[in-house]
Design goal:
- It is a single chain.
- The protein is of the alpha/beta class.
- It has a domain of 180 residues: Rossmann fold.
- Helix content is 37%, strand content 24%.
- Strands 3-2-1-4-5-7-6 form a 7-stranded mixed β-sheet, sandwiched between helices.
- The protein is globular and about 55 Å long.
- The mean pLDDT is 94.
């Protein structure tokens, strides 16, 4: 997985939608409270800490490849308050676990990984027999309007030079593509579906916070001193296409791929 320069504190302020979707995803699980869980891409640790309460007689490990995220999560949720929770800097593509977990959970992370096959194979190895994965990631057609604007920015004379030989930084798969990955890894698929989500932002400022903290594959192509201008240009174009509603909010239409599968 490519490493970006995450601002953990800024992300924490602008990731409420991701946290809400994670809670909705967890509601689809029936946990006994004794499971050992691995959270892939734990970020600032908010959701990981919530899961720790649900498995009070089990354990949970949160991993992320961002040292700043792990540092913030470890500070926010220390062992004295969360004795069954630990955080580790680790890449999802290089998992070091063998039959350690009953559940592997991941929300809003795996679309950062272009080559999914070794990741899903690592999940399979890390699970005990009959262990499950519960995943949500950007799916085919996710944030299509934002992606369209960003594609246009790459040919804008002001920004074009920063995007030479640029590759789309995300993996937004459809159900057929992901089914193949899961089956090749040995999983039995219980559920695999694309689900539309309405992401709501508090006006232009909220939208820019999300762009700034989430679309790093684009923003970090641009020199640091020009990023605010770049983000402003994206948000301005978006508002031209999708105006602010009567309550001062902006809506972004997302498509999330949800995955439930089991180790045979």
């Amino acid at each position: 997985m490519k490493r970006y320069q995450w601002n953990a504190q800024d992300y924490e302020k602008h990731s409420l939608a991701q946290q809400k979707w994670a809670r909705e995803l967890l509601d689809k699980l029936s946990l006994h409270g004794t499971e050992d869980v691995l959270d892939i891409g734990c970020g600032d640790g908010k959701v990981t800490a919530e899961i720790s309460r649900l498995v009070s007689k089990g354990t949970i490990v949160g991993i992320d490849n961002s040292s700043s995220m792990i540092a913030l999560a470890s500070k926010r949720y220390p062992p004295k308050d969360y004795p069954n929770l630990s955080f580790h800097e680790m890449d999802a593509g290089n998992l070091l676990f063998h039959e350690c977990f009953d559940l592997i959970f991941s929300n809003a992370t795996l679309h950062w990984v272009k080559n999914q096959q070794p990741v899903i194979e690592g999940f399979f190895k890390g699970l005990r027999q009959k262990g499950k994965i519960l995943l949500q990631l950007g799916g085919k057609g996710n944030a299509a309007e934002i992606v369209s604007i960003l594609s246009g920015m790459q040919t804008d004379p002001e920004w074009q030079s920063y995007f030479e030989k640029f590759d789309f930084p995300f993996f937004f798969p459809g159900t057929d593509e992901y089914e193949s990955i899961l089956l090749k890894s040995g999983f039995k698929i219980n559920r695999l579906e694309l689900i539309p989500k309405d992401m709501v932002h508090a006006g232009k400022t909220g939208l820019e916070g999300w762009i700034r903290t989430t679309w790093l594959g684009y923003t970090q192509q641009v020199p640091a001193e020009k990023r605010d201008k770049f983000v402003d240009a994206i948000s301005t174009k978006y508002i031209e296409r999708t105006p602010i509603d009567s309550k001062g909010r902006l809506h972004v239409q997302m498509l999330r791929l949800e995955v439930e599968a089991e180790k045979k």
